[in-house]
């Protein structure tokens, strides 16, 4: 069911510093920072030959990554995103097999303008999983 690895997301406290480290120390191609108030984060994308890294910095008072950064003050891997061909079919199959879909269970438009859903980390070995319509 799952296809390509779309991105790995890393939560950071200082996105400009993180972007600079990826650009200068690691020599990666790095996008500008984009505030996404509807998602409570600012994002930067690191373009790799085979996938992307998504840097996330909290934005606003109730950012969905604020608690994660309280638990992980140095930042850390927040989620991985797999592509699926049909997000509704994927959701229904996952639910039928007992996986917990977070939120309302209805896909939301994610940071890349495509429908996404998040799956409970306890069902996937401690890793928050995002699925995105390819
Ligand atoms: Co993501």
Written description of the protein model:
This protein is α+β, with helices and mostly antiparallel strands and 134 residues long. It has a single domain (2-133), classed as Roll (2,3-Dihydroxybiphenyl 1,2-Dioxygenase, domain 1), CATH 3.10.180.10. It has helices at 15-25, 66-71, 87-96, and strands at 5-11, 29-30, 34-36, 41-47, 52-58, 76-84, 108-109, 115-119, 128-133. The radius of gyration is 15 Å and the shape is globular. The chain starts with a strand and ends with a strand.
What's the architecture, going by CATH?
Roll
How would you sum up the global shape?
globular
**Strand-residue fraction?**
35-45%
Q: Report on the biggest sheet.
A: 9 strands, mixed
Rg (C-alpha, Å)? 15 Å
List the keywords:
binds cobalt (II) ion; 2,3-Dihydroxybiphenyl 1,2-Dioxygenase, domain 1; 134 residues; alpha+beta; globular
Describe the structure in brief.
The chain is α+β, with helices and mostly antiparallel strands and about 130 residues long. About 20% of the residues lie in helices and about 35% in strands.
Give the helices and strands, then pairings.
Blueprint: E1 5-11, H1 15-25, E2 29-30, E3 34-36, E4 41-47, E5 52-58, H2 66-71, E6 76-84, H3 87-96, E7 108-109, E8 115-119, E9 128-133
Parallel strand pairs: 1-5, 6-9
Antiparallel strand pairs: 1-6, 2-4, 3-4, 4-5, 7-8, 8-9
The structure holds cobalt (II) ion.
Cobalt (II) ion is lined by residues 7, 9, 54, 79, 81, 111, 130.
